[in-house]
Write a structure and sequence with these properties.
- With about 525 residues, the chain is of the alpha/beta class.
- The chain is built from 17 helices and 15 strands.
- The strands form two sheets. It has an eight-stranded mixed β-sheet with strand order 10-11-9-12-13-8-15-14, sandwiched between helices.
- Helix 5 links the parallel strand 5 (about 125-130) and strand 6.
- Helix 1 (about 20-30) packs across helix 2 and helix 16 packs across helix 17 (about 490-514).
- Residues about 1-10, about 390-395, about 420-445 and about 505-514 have low confidence and may be disordered.
- InterPro entries: ATP-dep_Helicase (IPR052511), Helicase/UvrB_N (IPR006935), Helicase_ATP-bd (IPR014001), Helicase_C-like (IPR001650), P-loop_NTPase (IPR027417).
Length: about 525
């Protein structure tokens, strides 16, 4: 049990970060315009629980009751600690906790709440955490139980796992800062992203893919890459099922790593003990299934090992976000610091950067975690249209160390100099993945073949092109490889001059032959 919440002294103010204040101000403005269903979007680690506490706390000060609805006991415990520290007077609606219906704020497990709706007064407002789950049956029941209440949905990924939007549940969307902006400001940790391979899912259903992930070779490759890129870092493993997770744990233990498995079938006390041991460093590798993917605050997590392939941007972004919580240097006060001071403190702290090991090659489908997303209430289809996704993937992979970077990066941190084109990872013919077994010669041959294909394509684009078209091509290529054409106009004039010179010479040779 948690101790009762202390009361804030009269006149005290709950301190918010600047962007949190902007989000809450915009939400209140929407409510004043009688918008009753609002979707707030902010990156993982942006402090959505604090935002919820502020909204519900201010409502309680006006004598209004409110619910904070979550879908997992781990989130309830973390939320209760935050609300308690902020002086919010709350009750908990969950199995194992006494019901306190007179409390102005209730932190609710959605599965328990649906069975106790008749025991609680109807709230003035409801805040739904991890709102991409709201389509689930119990969430809909809770929302329908208070049709006159205002509903605020909070999430970092405003799409359901299948890509559908949240328009049926929200009338307005307010988008806050995304991961890239918060990293630049020192509110989230920077990261290094490695994608040693890309799975070939052709002909495989999810059950078959999950079985393949448990194969000894693939598990062993994951351990090998972890030793190379994340040795000693506290790592959360994301697995497709329990069997694959237990296979990973066995492989890490065989390599001398303190590794444990956790999943939802365990008692919550056992799960809490395992996460506590992970936070304190007693466990180095904690492999889990559908437990730590969202809503769980684990600042000590330094590495995410993704051993799955998914079509869901929401799942992938929620998972990688687990390692973005920063660890500042001891004694540092992030609340009063400047952006530069926060970044410097992270660099000097125990986690200067997080590591992501993507054994499923998901980055080749989704890009980088810090990419700016054009979220839409209508979901993935509308988002992709507004993002104007290019035919080529705007990331590149180092063939030496398999680190993935934005396409603007010319030199990998390992020292490898990138070419001007993107080269996708090559799948092995005899296995589901290729996890770095390809030699340098094969990679170089693939790069040479890609360069030749690009050269031919560019020649075709230039053939017969007008002056304006040539200048446009030069600008587009400069956007991919800055500085390739110092003066697009001079280059276009040169190409047209060479073309005319060739044509003139050709006509003269033809006339002479006659």
């Amino acid at each position: 049990m948690l101790p009762p919440a202390p009361s804030l002294p009269p006149g005290s103010e709950m301190e918010l970060r600047d962007y949190q204040s902007v989000l809450t101000d915009r939400a209140r403005e929407s409510l004043r315009r009688r918008i009753r269903r609002i979707l707030l979007v902010a990156a993982t680690g942006a402090g959505k629980t604090v935002i919820a506490a502020f909204i519900l706390g201010r409502a309680a000060e006006r004598g209004l009751t409110g619910w904070f609805v979550v879908h997992r006991i781990e989130i309830i415990l973390r939320t209760a600690e935050t609300f308690r520290d902020l002086g919010i007077d709350f009750g908990i609606v969950a199995d194992g906790f006494p019901l306190e219906p007179d409390k102005p704020v209730q932190i609710c497990s959605v599965d328990t709440l649906v069975n106790k709706l008749h025991l609680l007064p109807t709230p003035a407002g409801i805040v739904f955490d991890e709102a991409h789950h709201i389509v689930a049956g119990n969430h809909s029941v809770v929302a329908g139980s208070a049709p006159d209440a205002w509903h605020i949905l909070i999430t970092a990924t405003p799409e359901r796992l299948d890509g559908a939007g949240l328009a049926p549940f929200a009338d307005e969307m307010i988008v806050g800062p995304q991961s890239g902006e918060l990293m630049k400001r020192g509110f989230l940790s920077p990261y290094r992203y490695f994608a040693p391979g890309s799975p070939d899912m052709l002909g495989l259903n999810m059950t078959e893919l999950a079985q393949a992930m448990g194969e000894a070779k693939l598990v062993g490759d994951a351990v090998e890459h972890w030793h190379r890129d994340a040795l000693g870092l506290r790592t959360i493993g994301f697995e497709m099922n329990r069997a694959a997770s237990q296979a990973s744990v066995a492989a890490f233990r065989a390599a001398g790593v303190e590794a444990w498995h956790v999943d939802g079938s365990m008692h919550r006390d056992q799960r809490r003990e395992l996460f506590t041991a992970f936070r304190t460093g007693q466990i180095t590798y904690l492999s889990q299934v559908a437990i730590a993917g969202e809503g769980v605050d684990i600042p000590g997590a330094e590495c995410a090992l993704l051993r799955y392939k998914t079509n869901s941007l929401t799942k992938w972004m929620q998972d990688v976000g687990r390692v973005f919580r920063p660890l500042y240097s001891p004694g540092f006060d992030a609340g009063t610091a400047t952006d530069d001071e926060r970044r410097a403190s992270i660099a000097a702290g125990p986690k200067p950067s997080a590591v992501i090991l993507d054994m499923g090659g998901n980055a080749f489908d989704f890009g980088m975690p810090c990419d700016q997303r054009q979220w839409s209430l209508l979901g993935a289809k509308e988002r992709r249209a507004s993002e104007r996704v290019r035919d080529t993937i705007p990331i590149r992979q180092c063939p030496e160390c398999y680190q993935v970077s934005p396409s603007t990066v010319k030199v990998c941190p390992c020292g490898y100099e990138h070419g001007t084109v993107y080269v996708a990872p090559i799948a092995a013919a005899d296995s589901l993945f290729e996890l770095g077994a390809l030699g340098r010669d094969a990679r170089k041959a693939a790069l040479a073949a890609e360069k030749e294909a690009t050269r031919k394509r560019e020649k075709d684009e230039e053939r017969g092109a007008s002056m304006a078209t040539l200048m446009r091509l030069a600008r587009e290529r400069n956007a991919i490889t800055p500085g390739r054409y110092k003066d697009p106009k001079k280059w276009a004039l040169m190409k047209i001059g060479l073309r005319e010179q060739y044509r003139g010479g050709g006509r003269q040779r033809f006339a002479a032959s006659r």
